[in-house]
Design a protein that fits this description.
By secondary structure, the protein is an all-alpha fold. The protein contains 7 helices and no strands. The protein has helices spanning 8-19, 30-43, 46-64, 77-93, 99-109, 121-124, 127-131. Helix 1 crosses helix 2 (30-43), helix 2 (30-43) crosses helix 3 and helix 3 crosses helix 4.
Length: 147
């Protein structure tokens, strides 16, 4: 496994660039979402971490990426909460490991297609799933221990 982060400061730099909306759209990858989620989950309960992640993503879209939400809304409620739950389960299971070790693991653990093990494409990419959390239609989701 490639070591993406050399130090905990590298992880904190990513979180700061997310919170300050200074990371570029081209540099904001799936693994970055997961690592920022992990950081919040190491410091907060799931509800608080989810709220911080949701607020941060919306801020990044509006302030950092200058998305015109009247034309495009890349934020996806179901996918965000799904991943927060997956990463929360991972964080609980790997609790004794350092943030650096967990960040390097989570950055490589799941590809962005993972939710499709639990959701049909039709449901996951529906307007409803984008706007509000919907339960999986194919299999039990991660909050039931299926990570």
């Amino acid at each position: 496994m490639e070591t993406r982060f050399k130090t905990e400061s590298d992880v904190l730099d990513l979180v700061r660039s997310f919170e300050n909306a200074t990371i570029s759209r081209d540099d904001w990858k799936h693994a970055d979402h997961l690592v920022v989620a992990l950081y919040y989950l190491t410091r907060h309960d799931l509800d608080t971490a989810y709220s911080k992640m949701r607020t941060g993503i919306l801020n990044l879209l509006l302030t950092g990426f200058h998305v015109d939400v009247a034309k495009e809304m890349p934020y996806h409620e179901t996918i965000t909460l799904f991943w927060m739950r997956v990463v929360a389960d991972f964080n609980s299971f790997m609790n004794a490991r350092s943030l650096l070790d967990k960040a390097n693991t989570v950055a490589h653990e799941w590809d962005k297609e993972y939710p499709l093990k639990f959701y049909s494409r039709e449901l996951l990419f529906s307007d409803r799933a984008r706007a509000e959390y919907v339960e999986p239609d194919l299999a039990a989701s991660s909050e039931k221990g299926e990570t």
